[in-house]
Amino acid sequence: MKRCDAVIEVHSEHKIKTSISPGIPNDEYLEWLYTTDTLIYTVHLSCSENFKPYPLEEIKRDLLGSISVMGREINNFSSSIDYALALGIYLGYEEIELYGMPMRTGEEYTHQRPGLAFWVGLAAGRGVNINMMYENDLFDSPLYAGDK
Description:
- By secondary structure, the protein is an alpha/beta fold.
- It has 2 domains: 1-53, no CATH class; 55-136, no CATH class.
- It has helices at 13-18, 26-35, 56-64, 80-90, 107-125; strands at 7-9, 40-42, 51-53, 68-69, 72-73, 95-98, 129-132.
- The strands form 3 sheets. It has a 3-stranded parallel β-sheet with strand order 1-2-3, covered by helices on one side.
- Helix 3 crosses helix 4 (80-90) and helix 4 (80-90) packs parallel to helix 5 (107-125).
- The longest helix is centred in the last third of the chain and has 19 residues, at 107-125.
């Protein structure tokens, strides 16, 4: 079974080099990005055969074009997972599984949770089956006007 169709890297090389990420050292990650045979959708990186430009403008037009706030286009990409879900919807995936992003605590997640909920809802509304394969409380709100 194939475990990964593609990787989405939305950060610049500078951001990758200077950020602190748990697990794999940043230099090793960059080396992997530039040498892997895996397809990499990128927003800011280039210069590798396996890199493909992330179709941001096409996705915004096709998936967000009918939504505006006071006549302004929206940009609802608050985390890498938003980019991943949007790409899956855009490419016509029928099923998307999400792993390892509980987004339960932390200041970072405060502004990322609404984006995840938006893209999950948009995917479901377009008939994409979404399987969240981890414990999370994103959709555990009490029923509005419910008894409990």
